């Protein structure tokens, strides 16, 4: 049969193997719009099927960009900047210019200093060895920031193709849907969902007579917390609305738990307030530091929930890192969860699932 591609995710359609990506029953080939079983399920039951792509497959696919002359648009989730960073992207995409888009800006408190956030993103990208032309903050969900980003993409691409890349769950599909919606009025043109990894092949979207925008598969990054949590827990830790800061006055030797996903010990320093920016649904518990180990042992999975017992089975153990915070207002960022702002001049210990990399930045608010 001629090659057919899924209208939902762009993967090549096949009728032979139910357990491989792109499967449709033979009878479905008669349909005018063919979507693979996985997209069909997502659309109708919100259920995700495991597919057999490996990390190498994803990187090999992204690496095809290095052989093109194009503009690369890299999307990151501003709540998971470090987690959703693809290392080696510069090498994978050749010499093509890169625009960096920070998505989900609608979730930031209104008082956030956006230019500081952009500065930090530029610096962190450069620390990762990535040279970016421009950084934009957008909300793929509500279109905020798109006027500027769209204009820049149009100018920079200079009639060339555009490749949109990003890790799973950063909002890449939502971003492309928003672009398509703005230019054609068509809603949800490509599949989106709560779950990582819905975009499988390169989807080709015409930009003009000669050039295309390509949606590339979401790279699975093991540093992302999202891969270790059940979909129910993911809904709890992912902010849905603008974050409401929660303030805690702490003395040294006190501890905060963010659900059971992370633990923040105030080791040394004068009493101060800590402002916590996490999903409004994530419970924060305060305990004494010397009781924190026992408290965690006893309550993780119930009082300290999420993680649910199911997530706990797959979640890497918490590992501790002690950090000296400089004497200025600083954000302690836990990728995939949120951040805590401190006035600085203190020592803290932070416990996060192994593999998750915390970072510090000058406070955004
Ligand atoms: P992909 O895996 O990168 O294609 O990500 P999706 O487009 O499927 O989005 C992942 C999750 O993030 C979904 O639950 C989206 O609803 C959500 N999301 C995407 N963009 C935004 C945004 O701008 N703001 C908010 N609040 N959520 C978003």
Characterization of the model:
With 365 residues, the protein is α+β, with helices and mostly antiparallel strands. The protein has 3 domains: 1-52, no CATH class; 69-221, P-loop containing nucleotide triphosphate hydrolases (Rossmann fold, 3-Layer(aba) Sandwich), CATH 3.40.50.300; 237-362, no CATH class. Helices cover 23% and strands 25% of the residues. It contains 9 helices and 16 strands. The protein has helices spanning 37-45, 55-63, 89-92, 114-127, 146-157, 172-184, 231-237, 289-299, 309-314, and strands spanning 70-77, 98-103, 134-137, 161-166, 203-206, 212-215, 246-250, 254-258, 262-268, 272-278, 284-288, 318-325, 330-334, 338-342, 346-353, 359-362. The strands form 3 sheets. The protein has a 6-stranded mixed β-sheet, with helices on both faces. A 5-stranded antiparallel β-sheet has the order 7-10-14-13-16, with no helix packed on it. It has a 5-stranded antiparallel β-sheet with strand order 11-8-9-15-12. It is globular. The site of guanosine-5'-diphosphate has 22 residues, from helix 6.
């Amino acid at each position: 049969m001629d090659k057919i591609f899924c209208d939902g995710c762009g993967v090549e359609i096949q009728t032979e193997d139910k357990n491989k990506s792109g499967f449709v029953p033979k009878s479905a080939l008669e349909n005018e719009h063919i979507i693979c079983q996985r997209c069909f399920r997502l659309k109708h039951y919100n259920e995700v099927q495991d597919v057999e792509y490996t990390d190498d497959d994803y990187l090999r696919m992204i690496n095809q960009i290095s052989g093109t002359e194009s503009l690369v648009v890299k999307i990151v989730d501003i709540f998971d900047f470090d987690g959703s960073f693809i290392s080696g992207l510069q090498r994978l995409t050749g010499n093509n210019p890169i625009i960096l888009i920070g998505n989900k800006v609608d979730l930031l408190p209104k008082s956030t200093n956006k230019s500081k956030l952009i500065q930090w993103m530029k610096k962190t990208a450069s620390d990762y060895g990535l040279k970016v032309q421009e950084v934009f903050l957008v909300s793929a969900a509500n279109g905020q920031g798109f006027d500027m980003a769209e204009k820049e993409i149009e100018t920079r691409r200079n009639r060339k193709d555009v490749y949109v890349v990003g890790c799973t769950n950063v909002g890449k599909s939502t971003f492309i849907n928003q672009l398509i919606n703005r230019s054609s009025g068509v809603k949800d043109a490509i599949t989106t969902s709560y779950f990582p990894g819905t975009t499988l092949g390169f989807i080709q979207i015409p930009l003009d007579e000669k050039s295309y925008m390509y949606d590339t598969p979401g790279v699975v990054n093991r540093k992302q917390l999202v891969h270790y949590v059940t979909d129910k827990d993911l809904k709890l830790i992912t902010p849905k609305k603008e974050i409401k800061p929660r303030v805690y006055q702490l003395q040294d030797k006190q501890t905060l738990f963010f659900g059971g996903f992370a633990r923040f010990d105030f080791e040394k320093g004068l009493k101060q307030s800590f402002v916590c920016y996490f999903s409004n649904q994530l419970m924060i518990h305060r305990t004494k530091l010397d009781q924190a180990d026992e408290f965690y042992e006893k309550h993780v999975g119930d009082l300290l929930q999420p993680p649910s017992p199911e997530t706990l089975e797959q979640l890497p153990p918490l590992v501790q890192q002690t950090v000296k915070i400089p004497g200025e207002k600083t954000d302690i960022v836990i990728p995939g969860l949120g951040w805590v702002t401190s006035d600085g001049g203190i020592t803290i210990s932070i416990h996060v699932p192994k593999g998750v990399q915390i970072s510090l930045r000058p406070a955004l608010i």
